[in-house]
Design brief:
By secondary structure, this protein is mainly alpha-helical. The protein is about 45% helix and about 10% strand. The protein folds into two domains: about 15-130, no CATH class; about 130-160. A three-stranded mixed sheet has the order 1-3-2. The mean pLDDT is about 80.
């Protein structure tokens, strides 16, 4: 009988992370960003305080009648109790290690860098927050000057280019 390998480590495409910032990313930060923007870490504990604050804010800003607000609070308390009982009975498995949680907190707290989603695919781009327009243009030019990038595009550009040396005068 074949043995199963329970110690599988998830593989992510680390080339999906493009670092254009002045700081280097650690291996753990790169691995977190490679998971993509659709990845949601499982919570370590229920955010009961945040739920209650959200409900109270809703009741105040919506100017609900007192009966409706009381009913909403009762439903919220019931649902929180259900979630707590479910969590005690069947603990949710964490999908991030302690190092990865620390990397998430570090990335979230860093105000010098911004992380944006790429146009195509599930690519993460890390860039300095205060980039001036000239620096952005210089970064774009450095990408276009890379020989591998131009070599990939050469086949697509050449057949479509029509350069006229002596353009005909328009009437």
């Amino acid at each position: 009988m074949a043995q199963r390998n329970n110690n599988k480590e998830m593989q992510f495409k680390t080339d999906a992370v493009l670092n254009r910032s002045s700081k280097e990313l650690t291996v753990v930060e790169t691995r977190i960003l490679a998971r993509g923007f659709k990845f949601r870490p499982s919570l370590q504990r229920l955010p009961i305080k945040d739920i209650v604050i959200g409900i109270e804010t809703l009741t105040k800003t919506a100017k609900m009648p007192p009966e409706t607000a009381t009913e909403l609070r009762n439903i919220t308390i019931t649902e929180i109790d259900k979630m707590q009982r479910t969590e005690k009975r069947k603990r949710s498995k964490p999908n991030l290690s302690r190092q990865e949680w620390q990397a998430v907190k570090t990335l979230a707290a860093d105000t010098d860098r911004r992380i944006v989603k790429g146009d195509k695919g599930d690519r993460s781009i890390v860039m300095d927050y205060g980039l001036e327009a000239t620096e952005c243009e210089a970064g774009t030019l450095s990408i276009l000057n890379e020989t591998t990038y131009l070599a990939k595009l050469q086949d697509r550009i050449q057949p479509h280019m029509k350069i006229e040396e002596n353009p005909a005068p328009q009437k």
